[in-house]
Every structure is written in C-alpha cells, then in structure tokens.
Write a structure and sequence with these properties.
This protein is α/β, with parallel strands linked by helices. Helix content is 49%, strand content 8%. A 5-stranded mixed beta sheet has the order 1-2-3-5-4, with helices on both faces. The structure holds zinc ion.
C-alpha cells in the first residue's frame, strides 16, 4: 500500500514528471524560486493538496513572459482598470490569462483583446468542505458565462463530496475559446470549446479531471464521465440558477454506453490500446460501471478514492496493476475471480499471463 517516499524519491518523481510534460515551467512540480512568500518544500510532501506558486502574481508573470507575450502584457497595461490598482480577481485574470497564453504553441491569441478590454471574466469564491476554491471563468463576447459559472460553482462542492477527498486545487481557471477539444490542462486550466460552454456534462467532466488525471487514459476518462454524471445527479434536485433541467441518471447512462459498445461500431481492443475514435470513453465507462455493479457502489467509491490517495493528490501516475489490486482489495472474495477476468480481458488482453508476470516481478 502507499509507500511513503522519502524526499529524494519524491524529487526524482517530480523531475521525471517534469520531463514528461515537456519541461514546462509551470508543471506542478516546478520548484518555486526562493522568496519569503514561497511555501516551504514541506508543503510539497505527501498528503496535501497542490500548492502552486505564483498564481495571481502579476509582476512575476510579466517578468517571466515579457519575451514571448509582450503585446498581451501591453494590452493589459493600457487598461484604465489596470492602472488604478488590481483587486484579487483582476490580478488572477491578468496572471492566469498570460500564463495560459504562454503555454500555447505559437502566437495565436486565444484570449482576445476584446476579452481583455471588456474584462470578460467571472470570479467566485466557492465554499468547500474545509476550504474555499477560487473559480475564474474567462470567456468570449456573447457567451452566457453567468449560467456557465452557476453550474461550475454548484458542481464543485458536489464533486468534492462524491470523491471523498479534499479538492486538490485552490484556484481553478476555466477558459472558453476557439479550441478544437475540451481539455483539462495540468491541474490549472480547463479549456472549453465554443460548442460546449453550456454543456453541463462537459463542464462536470472536465472538473472531475481535477481528481481523475492520475492514471491511464481509460481510467481517467471513464471516471471523469462517471463522476460527471454522479455530480449532475446530485444537482438535479437542487438545480443551479438558470438551469431549467439537468437530466442525469447513472443507470440510464450505463445503458446508453453499453448499447454503443455492443453495437459493433468499434474494434474489439483492450482499453489501453483504444483511442477516442475506437470507443475509448464508451468502453471505459462500461468497464468501470460493470465493476461498480459487481462490487457495489460503496466499495467502488472506496476503491477509487484509495487509488486517488495513492497518487498523492495526483503527484504520481498510477499504472494498471496498482489500480487492479486496489479494486481487488475492495472486492469480496467470491467476486475477485470475476474482477480479475474482466481486467484480463479488457486491460491486459490475455488470460492472466501478464498480471502473473507483474506479480512475480514484485515478489512476495
Ligand atoms: Zn476527459
């Protein structure tokens, strides 16, 4: 079970992940520069939510990105609301917008001058179980961001309750823009394509990735789908303002996904080998919901919560063997063979040979 890594091991993992993410300066493990306001290294240790340096620090963002984002910085500096001093939400708007833009390839202005000039953002402090989360939505002209924010704001605490673990981020920034896909970006940004700014399912799915980004794709996407539906189920009785109906039913969702998977539309591939176009999402949803039906709702949520905790708030990426073992741990002995054969069929794509090999490598 969770090995508590020593500080060196943690740093090794940190740098490994830094390398995997392309060495981006904003990767969650980047060491903050020394300063009196910088949290001590201990705050990066096991068992604590993310504590990211520099969020809302406008001077730091200007200094860091002046070489690559000077036109955008100049646009901000030219606004009267900028020159008369920045409130907390204005600081977040400026810093998050620049940091997000700097992470994009090329120089395409995803956040337009009009968005900057007209201050097209909404900001809320959302009360959570033990803390609050600052939620920022940066949007485009003519979008109903009020309604979008109402959904996000209501979904966040429900998601935290369902996950059973304190929400791992203190600030979450949602950016609406000319994107081709919706995406959860490195724990800090959610990008929402124009199609989907008022899709309750898409918004909840991307929010759920705050937890479910620490495993293989099928695990992350399947759980993001499932927790999106579960969150919306919670909200349907107490709908956020502006939302006339929020139909969500996990059983109906399962049946719909199963119909698609059984239709023969997709190749019969193991989940780790599937892309979205091969039915990755649908097949992952059915696989995980089949496990949930077999072991029970409570055992399932305990198992995935334990898996998440093992990742230390998303600091480690977990592999299939660990995920299978955690499900097995939460499964009654009479059902374990069935879980193993499901994993063999849909994850390993064999009759158990690979799992046994991994077991032998781990030793007794
Ligand atoms: Zn997703």
């Amino acid at each position: 079970m969770p090995r508590l890594p020593n500080r060196l091991a943690l740093l090794a993992v940190a740098f490994l992940l830094l390398a995997c993410s392309g060495g981006d300066n904003n990767a969650p493990f980047a060491m903050p520069p020394p300063s009196s306001e910088t949290p001590a290294i201990d705050s990066y240790l096991v068992g604590q939510p993310q504590n990211r340096a520099g969020i809302g620090d406008v001077d730091r963002a200007f200094a860091r990105y002046e070489a690559t984002r000077s036109p955008m910085i100049a646009t901000f500096q030219a606004q009267s609301w900028f020159t008369d001093g920045l409130t907390r939400d204005e600081s977040l708007f400026v810093e998050r917008a620049i940091t997000f833009s700097a992470r994009q390839r090329g120089n395409q202005a995803i956040i337009s001058d009009e968005t900057i000039r007209r201050k097209l953002y909404l900001y809320e402090r959302v009360p959570m179980q033990s803390n609050e989360v600052e939620l920022l939505v940066i949007h485009e002209p003519n979008q109903d961001a009020v309604r979008q924010m109402a959904l996000l704001k209501a979904a966040l605490p429900e998601l935290e309750k369902l996950a059973g673990v304190v929400y791992p981020e203190r600030v979450m920034t949602v950016i609406n823009g000319p994107f081709e896909i919706n995406d959860f970006d490195d724990g800090q940004f959610i990008r929402i394509a124009r199609c989907c700014t008022l899709s309750a399912f898409v918004l909840s799915h991307e929010l759920a990735h705050t937890y479910w980004s620490m495993g293989p794709s099928w695990f992350n996407e399947g759980l993001a789908d499932i927790y999106a539906i579960l969150t919306l189920e919670q909200l349907s009785d107490n709908r956020p303002e502006g939302w006339v109906s929020l139909p969500a039913d996990i059983d109906e969702f399962y049946r719909g996904r199963k119909r698609i998977v059984d239709s023969g539309r997709f190749p019969d591939l193991a989940l780790p080998r599937r892309l979205a176009s091969d039915g990755l999402y649908e097949a992952a949803d059915v696989f995980l919901l089949d496990i949930r039906r077999l072991i029970g709702v409570e055992a399932f949520s305990n198992a995935v919560r334990e898996t998440y905790m093992t990742s230390d708030f998303g600091r480690y990426v977990l592999r299939e063997k660990r995920i299978e073992d955690t499900f097995l741990k939460h499964t009654k002995s009479g059902d374990r063979d069935e879980i193993m054969s499901m994993f063999n069929r849909l994850i390993w794509g064999d009759n158990g040979e690979h799992y046994r090999e991994l077991q032998e490598q781990e030793g007794p």
